[in-house]
Known about the structure:
CATH class of the largest domain in chain B: Alpha Beta
Oligomer: heterodimer
Structural class of chain B: alpha+beta
Radius of gyration of chain B: 26 Å
Distance between the termini of chain A: 23 Å
Order of helices and strands of chain A: EHEEEEHEHEHHEHEEHHEHEHEHEHEHHH
Shape of chain B: globular
Number of domains of chain B: 3
Strand content of chain B: 25-35%
Number of helices of chain A: 15
Amino acid sequence: MAKRPTVTPGPIAIVAHTHPAITKGGAEIAAYALYEGLKRLGIETIFIAACLAEDRNRFRPASADEYALITERTHYDDFYTISAPETTRQLLAILAHRRVHLVNFHHHINIGLNSFRALSMLTQIPFFVTFHEFTAICANQGQMVTRPARRLCAQATPIACATCFPERPPEQFQLRRHFMLNSLRLAAGYIAPSQFLADRFIAWGLPAAKFAIIENGLRALPPQPAPPLPHTREKPWIIGTFGQITPNKGIDTVLDALDLIADQPALARRLRLRIHGGLSGQSADFTARFETAIATHDFATYEGPYANDDIFDLMAKCDFILVPSTWWENSPVVIQEAFATGRPVICTGIGGLAEKVPPGTAGLHFRRNDPVDLVRALAEAADTRIYKSLCAGLPSAYDTITMAQAYLAAFRQGRKEAVLF
Amino acid sequence: MGSGDLSPSREGVLGTTGSRGRAPGLLLTADLASPDPPPYRGHIDVIDPIRGLQGWAVNLAAPRNPPQLTLRVGTETVAQITPDRQRDDISDAMSQRVTAGFLFDAETLRRAAAMATAPGELITVRIAGTSFELGTGGPPVRAADLRAAKSLAAGQSNSPGHGAEISVDRILVIPGLGCMAEGWVLSPQRPVTAFRLTIGGVTLTARPDTLYRKSRADLLDAYPDAAHLIAQAGFVALFTGDTPPRDTASPTLTVVFAGGAEASFALPARLPRLLGHTATASDALLFFPALAAESFFPRFAAAAIEADRAALAPPVPLTLTQTPKTFIQVLPENRSDLFLAFETIATACRENLIDGLTLVAATDVTRADAPWLLRDLRASHDLPATMFAIPDTGQALALLPAILRATGAKRFVFAAAGLFPTLQAHRLAAAWLRGTAKTPIFLGPEPDPCAPPDPHAFPSSRCFGWTAEAFLRWSDTAPTFLGGHFRDNLLARATRAPTLCPNTVLAGRPLAPSAIELAVNETIYAAAAP
């Protein structure tokens, strides 16, 4: 039997399912931002990222405080999110070696819920879990949209989930929920970047008292928001989209909207749509449709992929930032980046998007998957008075220091209430 | 089957009713001549809560690539399937071999019916990604109709009278010995007292001592108000007698009601399954279960059981460590569940609850992952562990004697595939294996859904702890098994032999089903609150 390692007070470990050097998802970037924020506050912190064996050459630790959990894709189950025992051993060894006294997991995929359980049973180290989407609740990539119809899902039940995944029986989803809840309940506390996300997990079965709502901080902020772009009657309104170009992110709706705008020449003259982001990995049909739309409509341009460092400059050249996601989202970083740049957001009026962008104050909403309503929102936005009003109502963006301070407060509160600490 | 009408039955719907036995080639030719023909053809042959939803579908543009089908209730997609059955009639009509037949099983169909949110919602099958619906040759099927439908199972078209509903699921015929019939009967007015079966010109009467009644929970959806009848609706009857060697023509079941009234029920000609020379010794035991109890025949029963067991592929030890006490876990064949099973075992190991471990893995699916997971587990916990590979984890219980002999176990706890014992269950198992619990334990929850809850009444072969000596003694004269599962329902009643580990024979400690995580059927439909 493994011995319980003796853990004395030491650093905090931020554990993410991947490293920002390998992938650029919102969760790993937020985790790394927290790690940087804690360090800036003078808190001894280490960053541990799961890393697939085939990606190990791309893992670039910035300091000796960054570690990789080398995992094998073939030694992992993504339904229950159970990793190989070796992953758990690596994690416990790093925690013992660095004498960590508190762990904050920023996902359970790749790391495995079995690691949470082992950490709880074999050590006295309390751990906190930050949720970035609904993976524990929903097996469909944590998006809570149905499969294959991609309708929004309000509640996961074994029967409903088995309808999305006919290859799995309802009993397996009941087991999944049971296993996930039992494992996550071992945590001392939970952090959600949006109240919407927290509410979903509370309704699912996690205790509300253990939740703290903390917005993701941005690793870099512009010195100050860019001033609103000046407008004349002739100057078109520039709408920018940023991020991976996939149907999930609502680009289908944007392409439909382009066709509708083309039918209204007066509106088409007043709008310019700039689409930023990578297009790789998409189906041939989707890519062909996208390229045809861009070639057909001269008021839309594809700007290609961009470097994260350029995001604020690129956004500052737009009047509005468009976020047409078709799933609930949590707290997309792109919204924080838009606010930091001083740009209002036009987004789908659902879930975390609706929460983060108060309509009429920081942006405008349109109905999900509804190109007609998107065109309506774009036409409404193309108005100097509304634009200035929205620019004046933007909330401040979080930086890493503010985020880290909020996390420390949550850790203190959670530790105080945690029985096992 | 319907009338064979070839005309469109609804807008956008084309199909043949009664597609079997009639060449759809005529239809295909005619439709191809139309100005803008849809490229698909298909038909729903059967839709009922017992047999599920069956039919065929082809893509005329690519007949060798069966189109994906979606089962829908209203506008909701419930399930997807791709035809995977050969249909000679469709192949003949297409003049090439096509895989056109499909089946949405009864459980899926019942789930679809239960999902309907309005009484008028239709159950339909579409070619995935299109609006092309398969026709039924009759009116559209509403979910509400299906829930309330009278069964259309085999031969149901002939009502036996007296308000009774009857379905016969299977008939097994062994020439010279007799027949076994299995099915269900709902008779709200008078109880059924006897059955007679006419087959091949011979009339046989069911032996009263072999008539076994059982619950048929699967009828609850179709007959929601008949729960009291459903509890005893199922029947298995043995008709012993000199059945002819080849002739199974004109099978007819006659039901005798209390008071002497009778009603005859014509069965489909294809229903009887004639075993002929393929009949085995255990088939003989099925018809003459008393053989096992006769003082001059016990070795015959043992030989039959041994023959059954020998017919199975023996367990192959992948790694063998002899241990006097072992927890035997049959690993699930689903890969995700396999990981969960190992995590459950690892959790018990961390709590020091497992001293010896024996794993039984399926040779195909789980064998790829199970060995490295075991290797890792052994390395982590310094655990004496053994692993066997068998072709089908459902046969694990039948092969348990060989497994016990190979491991040299004196005491063991057996957990069948699909069980994920909780820590509480592992604590009980450890207590039995370590001798701190003096009585065997029985953990298997397999309650009859129609019976009153009584955990003491349901020890089963799913999960139990016993001594190897007692188990081996029991298994030598245990009821024979079918497909790896002991026929404990039928033969235990017929022979009055004990089911596995009955409390009345051997005192034990039944455990509530909640101790085992897979006992989820009872909670799955409960509110989602934790």
